[in-house]
Specification:
Chain lengths: 98, 145
């Protein structure tokens, strides 16, 4: 099956306009297979990407592009019970997940 | 949804922010594109998701009204999603989207006919509308959620 999402890069353009990734500790909620994550990872200081669906997360590491040096971790987590201390992140991205 | 937003507030640093990015439900134009030509085939009906959209908006309104977050900026834009064939698009939506949007038979047939007549390299695309918003954490919520 061949599909292509947003080859124009409009979504990433708007995301960069509104989100300040610069040296930020980022929490991405609803990361899926990391489609957006790998695009901004190198701008951030650290990324924690979570999804409630374990199936999507199985693909994330195989999709990791070469050259990503920022620490990025993925976890299956319920967004309504985040297992992180308060004041851990500078920025949260709710990507198609609310 | 409000619980997830409350959790987001808790884990953000003072003056931290979150960006909400989501598709807006509605009737998405379906188009066949080849080279620089765009031919309309009809609409895919995703209006079954409108109640979810409303619930999202209400949750976000609630956390802003209760002064947990302040909305700083909001934009919407077209998001284009391409498939090589209309059958692939139909299969994809049935497998991955819940509820599955309605692809009327006439629209399906029209898209298939346009793909055939447009020759090699023609693709079908769905024109969705995305909403992106940035919210800033307020230091001390005045009201409990």
């Amino acid at each position: 099956m061949s599909s292509e999402r947003d080859p124009e890069g409009t979504e990433a353009k708007y995301l960069y306009e509104l989100a300040d990734f610069n040296h930020a500790r980022v929490l991405e909620i609803g990361c899926g297979s990391g489609r957006l994550t790998w695009g901004y990872a190198n701008s951030a200081k650290r990324v924690v990407a979570i999804d409630s669906d374990d199936e999507d997360l199985t693909e994330v590491h195989s999709d990791r592009p070469p050259g990503v040096t920022t620490p990025v971790s993925f976890a299956q987590v319920d967004a309504e019970a985040l297992p992180f201390p308060q004041r851990t992140f500078d920025l949260a991205i709710l990507a198609w997940s609310l | 949804m409000v619980h997830a937003l409350k959790e987001t507030w808790r884990v953000l640093v003072p003056n931290g922010s979150f960006v909400d990015l989501r598709p807006l439900a509605g009737k998405f134009p379906l188009e066949v594109v080849s080279h620089d030509q765009v031919k309309p085939a009809g609409f895919v009906d995703d209006t079954a998701e409108i109640p979810t959209d409303i619930a999202c908006s209400e949750s976000l309104e609630k956390v802003t009204e209760q002064e947990w977050f302040h909305r700083e900026r909001e934009e919407s834009f077209d998001y284009l999603w391409y498939w090589d064939t209309i059958d692939e698009m139909k299969d994809y939506m049935e497998e991955n989207w819940d509820p599955t949007p309605i692809l009327p038979k006439m629209v399906f047939s029209k898209a298939r006919q346009l793909l055939t007549s447009s020759g090699n390299g023609a693709r079908v695309r769905l024109r969705m509308r995305l909403l992106i918003s940035r919210y800033r954490k307020r230091q001390r919520p005045v009201h409990a959620l």
